[in-house]
Amino acid sequence: MNCFCCGGEMPDARKVKIRRWRDLDPAVIKPGSAAYMSYTEEMTFRWAVVCAGCYSTLDNAYGVARIAGQSFNISGSSRAGKARTLTEEQYREWQRREAKKLGVDLQDD
Ligand SMILES: [Zn+2]
To answer: Is residue 6 within a helix (H) or strand (E), and if so which, with residue range?
Structure first.
């Protein structure tokens, strides 16, 4: 599995509610436009896995950090060391459950 922030391979991960932090420039982004839709899409918290290094960088008072040239923000419920640790196997299990919800059947290789 790969880290949502740095893209690095990791043996185990922290499961966090995270979003990419983007600055909104109202001059170029208008509500209803494609740019605005992608902005709100990215600014929505979602579950993802990050490596231990990125988690410790993100786990600060504001839950905001700049990693690999991008800003990320983790939700309050994922801060203060509260993020669950997932092994590769637990991660796959979680992905399978998510896929099932979407009606996709992931085969084990
Ligand atoms: Zn990372």
So the answer is: none
Cα(66) to ligand 1 centroid in Å equals 11
Mean pLDDT computed over 84-93:
96
48 phi-psi bin (left φ>0, alpha ψ -120 to 50, beta other): beta
Distance 100 CA to ligand 1 centre (A): 27
Q: What is the DSSP letter of 79?
A: T
Question: Does residue 62 contact residue 72 with C-beta atoms inside 8 Å?
Answer: no
pTM: 0.83
Q: How many CA atoms lie within 13 A of 11 on its CB side?
A: 0
Output the CA 28–ligand 1 centroid distance in Å.
31
